[in-house]
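Standup notes, protein team

Yesterday: finished cleaning the Stenotrophomonas koreensis set.
Today: Entericidin structure.
Blockers: none.

Input for Entericidin:
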Amino acid sequence: MKRTLMALMVSLLALGLLAGCNTVAGFGKDMQKAGDKLEGAAKG
């Protein structure tokens, strides 16, 4: 029982970390797009 609970906890932690990575990657892409727009506005 203890082993199964520990495996479940590790699995949930891994899923949480993977979801976090996807969120951070998406945030980075959004920030890059915003930076590109600001750069375009400054040039033009």
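Follow-up from PR in the comments: Residues 10 and 16 are 10 Å apart (CA to CA).
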